[in-house]
Design brief:
heterotetramer, A: 338 residues, alpha/beta, 37% helix, B: alpha/beta, globular, binds thiamine diphosphate, binds magnesium ion
C-alpha cells in the first residue's frame, strides 16, 4: 500500500490501464492540456506519457464526445471520455441513454460497448447549479448502463480499473470534494469489483447507506451517534449499478432500520430506490421509519449561507438516525418539498 | 473530375442492387396492409435506391456504414441477408437481431453495417467513433454515415463535422436530401437549399449530386471515398432525391402536391437506369426481366422464411442488456 | 359535458388557450403540417385556425425548440412546444433542466418561465426503445419544473389548460395509448388544478397509486380484486410535481398498504419516491410491504412477445396487491433486476 | 461599407465604457487573491473590452442581450449597476440577483441583459426565444447573443443559426474569438480559422473583424444591427481578440506562449484607443486621467458597497425556485 490522494489514485488507474491495453484511449475537454497543472487531477501528465494519439483534447461538444465513445467502443476500443461536470451530462444524455445503454440490446447481443465516462460531481465549490447537479439517479434508472461512485483513494483506483475493463458502459463519478483526500492505495492493477458494497463501519442499531463525499459526512455522524450510544452500520455503496442488494438487505434485517444519505436532491434521488427496495423486501424486519438525508429541491446555490442549507451535514444525519430510532419528533425537513 | 466509364458487370450490379431493394420493400408494403403483421412504423427507401446502391457499391469490405431509420437500402446493398432482415422487420426470433431491433434499429455488424439509430442526427456522432477507431488502429477502412436533410438540423451533426474536420477522420457524410423531414418541406427545416455548402465551414469538400442517377452517385462516392481513404479527412456528399411513399406507410401524403410526385415518379432511379442499360446495350429485356424476377422471388422467399419463424420466447426479453449482467 | 376523445380534449385545450391569450403559441416538429390527418392528434387543425404566425413547424432540433420556449417565455410569451417522443427529451434536457428549471432561481426571482412542453409517452406501439422510454422520474427529480400526466379526457383538457397558464415550466405528458379514449369533457375554460390527485375508486384494504395509461391497468386489476374480496383505493396522481402528498398519506393511513403502478422502469422510477415517502411519513400505519409494479430494467422491446414482459398487466397489479396484503408468497419479479 | 466618422462624445463614451470594465475587473483580481472573498471561479473579460463596448454601444434600449460566463463587460456596458453587480459576484444579499447567481450566472433583466448561461453554447438557443418574441410581437428590437469560439463547437449554436435563418429572426450572433477554449487553442477545437465562414450555410451575412479596435467593432455592430432590425434576418459578427488573463483567475497560463501574450498586450484595446483619442485630439491627458480616475473610484466604491452587505439569510435559499411553489 502506498499513500496517494484520491486524484492521484485515479491518475494511476488511467496510467495502468493505458499501459496494459493499447485499446484504451482518453478524450475530453482539457484531458490533455489543462488549465490546471495539478497532480491531483485525474488526467495529469497523461499527454506527456502517452502522446496526443491516445490522449485527445476535444472541442466543447459533449454529444460528439459521448458519440466518440459509443462508436469507438463498438469497434473494440476502450474509450475513457470525460464529461466535465455532471450538469453537462444532459448534453451527452441522448448518446448515453438512447445509444450506449440500448444499442447492444437492439443488436440482439451482437454489439458491445466497453466504454467509460468520467464525470465530476460534488457540491460546495461555489460555482452554482450549472456546474453542480448530481444526477446519479438519472443514470441508475436507465437500462444498459452501470454507475460507480468511489469514496476512497483505494476504490477510486480499483473502481476506475474495473470500469475501464468492464465489457459494458460504466459511468465513473469523480467527487470533486475528494480529489485531495489522502489514503493508502495498493500497488499495481488491483481492481474493486463492480456491485460489491463495503461495510465502512459495522454496527447494530441502524443501517446507514451512503456513497461519495456524503459517506464521510455519514462517518462523522456515526462517530457522534456512537457517543450517544447509537451504533450505526455504515455501508459505502461504491457501485450504484450493479447494486449490492444483499449487503443492504442483510444489514437492515439485522438492524431493523435504514437511513440513506446523499448530496443529490432527495426527491426522486437514488435514496428513494434504496428506501423503496427495503420497504418491500425487508419490510418484516423494519422497526422504524426509513429516513432519507438529501438536498432540498432547489438548484445548487452559490452563497456560503445557502450552500449550508443545501448540503447535508453530519447533524442532519444524526437527526435522521435518531428519528429512525424513534428518539426524536418526526421531521422531514426542507428536503420534503418537491 | 474525370469519370472513367463503369465496367458492364458493375453497371449490372448497380441495377441489381436497386431492384432487390425495391422488390424487398414492395413485400413490406403488402405486409403493412395486413394488420398485425409488422410491429411499429414502416419506413421505406422507395425512390432513393440509387443513393444506397451508388454509395455502397463504391466501398470496400473493411469500410463501415452507419445508417438511420430509412435503412433497408443501405443494409441490403451492403450485403445483409434478406431472410434474417425480413424476419427482423417482423420482429421474429430468426431476425438479424433476434427480434430485438424491429424495423427501426436494424444493425448487421457481420457486414460492417455497424450501427443504426432512429434518433435523427445520432448517426454522425456514432460514426465519428467508428472512424476514429479506424484512424487509431491505422487499419485502413473508412466510415460512411447516411443521414437525411432533416437530420442536418440536429446539433450532433455539426459537432461531428467539426471534430472530424479537426482530426481529419476517414469519415464520409452522405446526406440524402429527399426534400422532406416528416411533413416539413426542406425550406421549412433548412435555411439553405444545399446542405453541401456547409462543408467548407468544417474544412472538408462537399458536393451536391443528382441522387436519382446511380452512376453519378457511384462516381462521386468513389472520388470522395478515395479522398477519405487517403487520410485527407472527412468529406460530404449531398444526394438530391425524393421520398416516393411519404415518411412511412401510415403517411398518405395529404400534404404533398401530386404533380411533384409525378415529376419524381418520372425520374424513378430504377426506371431511368433500366432505360440507360437497355439503350447502352448492356442488358436486353430478357436479362432485365430475369434479374427483376430473381429479385422478386428472393424477396418473396424472405417473407416465407420470416413467416415460418416464431416470435422470440418471452423470457429472452430480459437478455442482451449487458455483457456482464448485474448480479442482483 | 360533451363526449370527446383524449386527443380531442387536448386539442380543445390548445384551441381555448390560443383564443383567450395572444401570448400563447405552439411550436414543434409537425405541429402545423403533420403526416397524420387525425382529429385525435393534439395539434390537429390549429394551423388552419391560427395561422403560421402562431403555429410554428420547426426543424428537427430539440435543443433549439426547448431554447425557443425558455427564451420566449422569459420575454412574457406562453410557448407550448412539443418534444415528439420521450426519449428525445434527452436532447432538450440541458435547456429544460439547466435553464427552464434554474434560471428563475439564479435570477433571484426576477425572471419567470411560463412555458409548457408537450411530450408523447407510452409503451406498446412496437417502435422500440428509441421512441418509447418513460422518463418522468428525470423531470420529477429536478428543481424548478412541474410535470403532469393526465389519464382521462377531462383531465387531459383541464391539466393542459392549467399547465399553459401556470407561471412556471410544466411538462405535460401525453400518453399515446390514450389518444383515442373517449370520455365526457366539460365545455369551456375548465381547468384541473395542478397538485391535486383524484381518488378514482375508494376502498379500504390497499392504496394503489398510478397515473396515465397505467391507471386503467390498475382499475382493471381493482375490479378483479374486488371479486376476490379485496377493496382497493385507487389514486390517479394526475400531477407528479406538484405532488399531492396529503391525498396519498391520508389514504395509506386508512388502508395501511401501498402499491404503486407505472409503465416506466421500476428501478429508480417515480414509484420509488412514493414508496420512500410513505415508508418514512406513514410508517406507523403500514401493515405490509410496499409493492411497486413497473417495467423490468430493459429497453422497451419491439416483439409482441417481449412487450408483454415489459408492460405491466392487470395480473401483475393483482399479484402485487395480494402480496402487499400478505396473501401470496413474496416475489418481486423480473423488475427487481437493476 | 462606408464608415461615417463617429461623433466625439460617442468616442469618449466608448473609451469610458472600456475603462470602467477594466477597473471593475481589476478589483475582482485583487479580491480573488484574498481567500474566501469570492465564491466559485472568476472569469474576466480583460483584453476583450472593445467587443463589449463596441457592440453594446451600437444597440438601442429595447434590444436584448444574452451573455455567457465571461459576462462582466457585456453587463457593465449595457448599464448594469456596479454596486449590485459586485455584490452579486460576492454572492451578497444586495446582489443584482440576491446572491443566487454568483459571478457565473449574472442576469440584469432591468437593462435587458435578459439571460446568462454558463453552459457553453446555451446562449444562442435562449436568444432564439427572445428574438422570436420580438418578431412575434412586432415590437421592434433585436437580440444580441455573445458566445465564444469554443461555444461555436456546440450543436445548440448550429441548431439556433439554422432556425434563425429560416424564420429570419432579428438575432445578432456575436462570436468572441479569443483564440482559446479553456486550455485548448482555437485549432484544437475548431476546424476552421474563421467561424464567420459558417454564416453562409445558414443564409445570413457573417463578418470577421478586429475585436481589439473598438471603432471597427462599433461600425460593424451598427451595420449588422441595422440589418437585423430591418427584418432581413440574423447576422454573425466574429470578433478576433484575446483572453489576457487566462480562462479564469485560477488559470496561470502555464500552457500559453509568453511571446503571444506580449504581442496581444501591445494590442490592448484600451491602450490603443487611448493613444488614438489623444492623437486625434478628442481628449487630452488630463481628461483621460479624470475618466480613468472616476472609473477607479467607482469600482472601489462598488467593492465597499458589497463588503458592507451581508450574505443572504440561509432560509432564502429555498425561495425563488417557482413563482407558484408546490403546496406539499
Ligand atoms: C431526435 C429525433 N427527433 C424527431 C424524430 C422523429 N422523426 C423521425 S424521422 C423524422 C424526419 C427525418 O427527416 P430526414 O432526416 O430528412 O430523414 P428522412 O425521413 O427524410 O429520410 C423525424 C422528425 C426522431 N426520430 N428523432
Ligand atoms: C456545456 C459546457 N461544457 C463545458 C464547460 C466548461 N467550460 C467553461 S468555459 C469553457 C471554454 C469556453 O470557450 P469559449 O466558448 O471560447 O469562451 P471563452 O472562455 O474563451 O470566453 C469550457 C469548456 C461548460 N461551462 N459548459
Ligand atoms: Mg429528408
Ligand atoms: Mg474562446
Amino acid at each position: 500500500m502506498i499513500q496517494k490522494t484520491f486524484g492521484q489514485a485515479l491518475n494511476e488507474a488511467l496510467t495502468i490501464a493505458m499501459e496494459i491495453d493499447e485499446a484504451v484511449f482518453i478524450a475530453g475537454e482539457g484531458v490533455g492540456v489543462s488549465i490546471h497543472k495539478d497532480p491531483n487531477m485525474t488526467t495529469f501528465g497523461l499527454l506527456d506519457k502517452f502522446g496526443p494519439g491516445r490522449v485527445k483534447d476535444t472541442p466543447v461538444s459533449e454529444a460528439a464526445i459521448a458519440g466518440l465513445a459509443v462508436g469507438a467502443s463498438c469497434m473494440g476500443l476502450r474509450p475513457v471520455v470525460e464529461i466535465m461536470f455532471f450538469p453537462f451530462m444532459t448534453l451527452a444524455s441522448d448518446m448515453l441513454i438512447n445509444h450506449a445503454g440500448k444499442l447492444r440490446y437492439m443488436s440482439g447481443g451482437k454489439s458491445s460497448f466497453p466504454l467509460t465516462v468520467r464525470v465530476k460531481a460534488g457540491v460546495g465549490f461555489g460555482a452554482g447549479s450549472q456546474h453542480s447537479h448530481n444526477l446519479e439517479s438519472w443514470i441508475a434508472h436507465c437500462p444498459g448502463l452501470k454507475i460507480v461512485w468511489p469514496a476512497t483513494p483505494e476504490d477510486a483506483k480499483g473502481l476506475m480499473l474495473s470500469a475501464i475493463f468492464d465489457p459494458d458502459p460504466v459511468i465513473v463519478v469523480e467527487d470533486m470534494m475528494l480529489y485531495r483526500m489522502p489514503g493508502s492505495v495498493p500497488a499495481g492493477d488491483v481492481r474493486t469489483p463492480l456491485g460489491k458494497a463495503r461495510v465502512a463501519a459495522s454496527g447494530t442499531d441502524c443501517t446507514v447507506v451512503s456513497y461519495g463525499a456524503a459517506l464521510h459526512t455519514t462517518l462523522k455522524a456515526a462517530a457522534v451517534l456512537n457517543e450517544q450510544g447509537i451504533s450505526c452500520e455504515v455501508i459505502d455503496l461504491r457501485s450504484l449499478v450493479p447494486l449490492d442488494k444483499a449487503c443492504i438487505l442483510d444489514s437492515v434485517r439485522r438492524t431493523g432500520r435504514l437511513v440513506v444519505v446523499h448530496e443529490a436532491v432527495r426527491f426522486c434521488g437514488f435514496g428513494a430506490e434504496l428506501a423503496a427496495m427495503v420497504a418491500d423486501e425487508a419490510f418484516a424486519a423494519l422497526k422504524g421509519p426509513i429516513k432519507r438525508v438529501g438536498a432540498p429541491k432547489i438548484p445548487v446555490p452559490v452563497a456560503p449561507t445557502h450552500e449550508k442549507i443545501f448540503k447535508p451535514a453530519p447533524e442532519d444525519v444524526v437527526r435522521a438516525v435518531r428519528e429512525a430510532m424513534g428518539k426524536e419528533g418526526h421531521s422531514s425537513g426542507p428536503s420534503a418539498t418537491n | 473530375m474525370t469519370k472513367n466509364p463503369i465496367a458492364p458487370d458493375v453497371r449490372i450490379h448497380l441495377y441489381t442492387q436497386m431492384i432487390r431493394v425495391r422488390k424487398f420493400e414492395e413485400q413490406i408494403v403488402a405486409l403493412s396492409k395486413e394488420s398485425g403483421r409488422l410491429p411499429g412504423m414502416q419506413i421505406l427507401a422507395n425512390g432513393q435506391e440509387a443513393v444506397a446502391a451508388g454509395i455502397v457499391s463504391a466501398l470496400e469490405p473493411a469500410d463501415v456504414i452507419v445508417t438511420n431509420h430509412r435503412s433497408h437500402g443501405h443494409l441490403l446493398t451492403r450485403g445483409a441477408d434478406m431472410n434474417s432482415l425480413m424476419a427482423e422487420i417482423m420482429a421474429k426470433e430468426t431476425g438479424v437481431n433476434k427480434g430485438k431491433a424491429g424495423t427501426l434499429h436494424l444493425s448487421v455488424p457481420e457486414v460492417n453495417a455497424l450501427m443504426t439509430s432512429t434518433v435523427v442526427g445520432a448517426g454522425p456522432p456514432l460514426a465519428l467513433g467508428a472512424a476514429f477507431a479506424q484512424q487509431y488502429r491505422c487499419a485502413g477502412g473508412i466510415t460512411v454515415v447516411f443521414f437525411g436533410d432533416g437530420a442536418a438540423a440536429e446539433g450532433s451533426v455539426h459537432e461531428t463535422m467539426n471534430l472530424a474536420g479537426i482530426w481529419k477522420l476517414p469519415l464520409l457524410f452522405v446526406c440524402e436530401n429527399n426534400c422532406w423531414a416528416g411533413a416539413q418541406r426542406h425550406e421549412v427545416h433548412c435555411a439553405t437549399r444545399h446542405i453541401s455548402g456547409r462543408a467548407a465551414g468544417y474544412d472538408m469538400p462537399g458536393k451536391s449530386v443528382d441522387g436519382n442517377d446511380v452512376e453519378v452517385v457511384y462516381h462521386q462516392a468513389a472520388e470522395m471515398a478515395a479522398y477519405c481513404r487517403s487520410g485527407k479527412g472527412p468529406a460530404l456528399i449531398e444526394a438530391h432525391t425524393y421520398r416516393m411513399r411519404g415518411h412511412g406507410e401510415q403517411d398518405h401524403q395529404h400534404y404533398v402536391d401530386p404533380a411533384e410526385l409525378e415529376i419524381w415518379a418520372a425520374r424513378c432511379p430504377i426506371r431511368l437506369y433500366r432505360q440507360k442499360l437497355l439503350s447502352d446495350g448492356v442488358l436486353d429485356t430478357d436479362r432485365l426481366q430475369a434479374i427483376d424476377q430473381e429479385a422478386e422471388v428472393r424477396a418473396a422467399a424472405a417473407v416465407a422464411f420470416a413467416d415460418a419463424s416464431p416470435y422470440p420466447a418471452p423470457e429472452t426479453a430480459l437478455t442482451d442488456v449487458y455483457v456482464q449482467p448485474p448480479l442482483s
